[in-house]
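Protocol step 4 of 5: obtain the predicted structure for the target chain.
Materials: sequence only (see below). No template structures provided, no constraints applied. The aim of this step is simply to have a reference model before the mutagenesis design in step 5. Sequence pasted as it appears in the construct record:
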Amino acid sequence: MIDIRPRDSLAHRNHGWLDTRYHFSFSDYHDPARMGWGALRVWNDDRIDAKSGFPPHPHRDMEIVTFVHSGAISHQDSLGNKGRTVAGDVQVMSAGTGITHAEFNLEDEKTDLFQLWIMPDRAGEKPSWGTREFPRGDRSGDWTVLASGTPDADDALPIRADAKVLATTLKAGETVHFDADPARHQYLVAVDGRFRVNGHEAGARDGVAITGESAIEVEAIEDAELVLVDSR
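Step 4 output (structure tokens):
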């Protein structure tokens, strides 16, 4: 099953400093048919104005993955962690027993990012935070695992969930393959560019919900950067 969810069908909120679209129920938006996809609970497509952001707020028992695709986001939390994640890179916060953090765009330009929340497999563990570089050139034409709950994914940021977050960049006409387990759930979004998934066409920022497939073939119609979550 492949379900294309056009960007214009997603919940849209514009708070002035924050222009966002929700792929799943979040905040004041509730749709019983879109409560998540497998272990993936939230996929927010955020544009944050320069010199603005989210003041300190708490989380617990959630794996929060932030994929920055333009600009940069600066993080500070109650554990004393501070960091700046720039375009193309990723940060992961395992909220565990509880953590308070703030995220601000301290740049002179807007920042665009995807923020993903993934349900953890286990609760009550110590919170943690980390960020790392993922050069776009390194994932050209193939998948790179950005975050993973699989112990053998050495180069990925760790998460406490039976899930992986992957990304690729494709030139127009290129294809990339993903071996899927039909019992699992995949969710795919392009930062930019039109593409096909097993013959189904989708555009930038559309959501593609997939399950029941044993193989996923992604073909770029235009130059495209794509992010994929595979979860139980």
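Step 4 remarks: The CA atoms of residues 174 and 220 lie 6 Å apart. The two ends are 15 Å apart (CA to CA).
Proceed to step 5.
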